[in-house]
Amino acid sequence: ALLRANPTLNRTLNPSLSLSRRSGARGFATMSAETFPVALVQLSCGSDKAENIERARSKVAEAAAAGAKLVSLPECWNSPYATSAFPEYAEVVPGVGGAADPAASPSAAAIIAMAKENNIFLVGGSVPERDEATGKIYNTCIVVDPDGNIVARHRKVHLFDIDVPGGITFKESDTLSPGESATMFDTPMGKVGVGICYDIRFPELSMLMRSRGAVLLLFPGAFNMTTGPRHWELLARARAVDNQCFVAVTSPARVPGADYQAWGHSSVVDPWGEVVSTTEHEEDIVYADVNLSMVPEIRQAIPVSMQKRPDIYELQDRQA
Q1: Alpha-carbon distance 106 to 109, whole Å?
Q2: Could you read off the pLDDT of 98-145 as tens digits, one per residue?
Q3: Rounded to whole angstroms, how far apart are CA atoms 246 and 214?
Q4: Do residues 276 and 17 touch, judged by C-beta distance below 8 A?
Q5: Which residues lie closer than 8 Å to 255 by C-beta, 6 or more apart?
Q6: Pairing of strands 190-194, 183-187
Q7: 35 exposed, middle or buried (CB, 10 Å; 0-12, 13-18, 19+)?
Q8: What percent of the chain has pLDDT over 70?
Q9: Residues identified as active-site
Q10: Cα–Cα separations (whole angstroms), residue 49 to 19, 78, 90, 124, 262
Q11: d(Cα 30, Cα 38) in Å, to the nearest integer?
Q12: CA-to-CA distance for 77 and 74, rounded, in angstroms?
């Protein structure tokens, strides 16, 4: 059965599998060697960067206080989602092991501080990045560990260039450049892969991260009112089933009157393809106790990785 509560919807199909979080509760089940408390911050993002940063700081602290050990922000949480806004809001984003100057990198500095202050892994959604050397602008996610170290930086690999007649036209490549690599980071619970929004539509990228050992894939994203209702949940469930791992998708909240309307519905999906925790479109935090013991169990029960036909087809890791 589906358990629904408004305004927050947390959908639980089998609590013993992967979810201890129910709408209205403010905590997780006791963390075991197999569970990883995760929170997705569906943030309401406006045009004031400083205000967005403070709002993120508050919501991340709330998620950590509830017991989350890994927290994700949404795509473009510090700025409006618009090609005209990306250059205006872009800042320097340090790479792995780097430090952030609060003057040049206020969003990155805040992400580092939030992770350290709350003793969590923080997946920093994405922010517009300006490369100091080239001047190129990227849609970039950094991941910070509980000690405040940047352990991953992902630049969105696939740019959102679409034209849906009667729906939406958007062209990120008008101002953004694409990233050049798949991104992974290590946690005590296993390897985690990171993509941004449109990256989820390309199954090869997720397959590559699974081949590198990912047990959880995270996609901060901002699907819209055309693609969101049709594909947001579908793609998250597809990537989970394809790769027999957990998938978490984190959206901004929908902001009335904004030029770009996000779909919302941040969600966690288990390796069976079941949505185990989700919400609607308002600002919210989605919680899930991710039971990572499901991953090897399902991969053993349905051993597709051992049944591939390299004599017919093959996935190549060009950066191995």
Answers
A1: 5
A2: 999 999 999 999 999 999 999 999 999 999 999 999 999 999 999 999
A3: 9
A4: yes
A5: 44, 45, 46, 261, 262
A6: antiparallel
A7: buried
A8: 90
A9: 75, 156, 197
A10: 34, 5, 11, 15, 18
A11: 13
A12: 6
- Asked if residue 178 lies in contact with residue 139, where contact means CB atoms within 8 angstroms, the answer is no
Q: Per the structure block, which two tokens stand in for 71? A: 């927290």
The length of the chain in residues reads: 320
Per-residue pLDDT of 68-92, as tens digits, reads 999 999 999 999 999 999 999 999 9
Task: Render pLDDT for 141-199 as a digit per residue (tens, 0 to 9).
Answer: 999 999 999 999 999 999 999 999 999 999 999 999 999 999 999 999 999 999 999 99
The residue to which tokens 């490369």 are assigned: 131
Residue 254 has which token pair?
């929908």
Residue 289: both structure tokens together: 């106790």
Q: What is the pTM of this model?
A: 0.91
Q: What burial letters (b/e) apply to 63-88, b meaning 16+ CB within 10 Å?
A: bbebbbbbbbbbbbbbbbbbeebbee
